[in-house]
Amino acid sequence: MRARFILAATAGIALAMPVLAQTGASADFQKFRDVMEEDNPAELFEARGEAYWKTPSGPKHASLEQCDLGLGPGVVAGAYVQMPRYFADVDKVMDAESRVVHCMVTLQGLTYEAVTRQPFSNQSGTPAHVNVVTYVAGQSRNMPIAVPQRHPKEREMYQIGKEIFNFRAGPYDFACATCHGTDGKRIRMQDLPNLTRPEGAIKAVQGWPGYRMTGGLMLTSQWRMNDCFRQQRFPEPKYLSDTVTAILTYQAVNAKGQIYRGPGIKR
After folding, report:
1. pTM of the model
2. Where are the domains of the chain?
3. Catalytic site includes residue 228
4. Of 67, 176, 179, 228, which one is the catalytic site residue?
């Protein structure tokens, strides 16, 4: 028991250990990523998402071309960099993935259970909603993050996200802020951005949805947040949980004005 405790404590200290500069190894990896971005497989999923968006489907035999992503029915360009945002028709704040699933249910007549039976990509395939989110994200490529904070529920969601970000719990007493609350931290070869600052927060938004090279899978921000909870040894949130939307709101608002480069590629 004592040995396990020491091992866990040592891991926690190493995780939070500051460094003065990016190492040669991490810099080389960034060069590798930049080269890979030139032929990013995410474009294939983006194309599939566009095809689904425009093709009638579901019990109502309808396309998603009337889906309102916050800028009006059917308007996709620039929508992703302005989400999460408040939607009056559901009286809540939704991120892009939540909104796409909502449109598949309301416009196409699919059931929520059917759409979310496989929430994330795995070796059996990529769900249609993941392709659509990738397409939607691609239509905001090279645009500045501009998540609104006009509605009271948008501001409330940001504050909830901030509280969750700083909430410490679990067997290692970790919070999101343990790794991402200050400058100059890293884990193994991975530099850890400070998500409380614009230049750091964009690194959490940037590249998602992303093609994961190690698994050959297209993954979304919802997946990434669930995986963060898993790594903190927290229970993973229910798919499309308001908890995840709150954290995504906190990150995106902090990244205001930073340029989104589109669906990316991950190691």
Report:
1. 0.87
2. 42-266
3. yes
4. 228
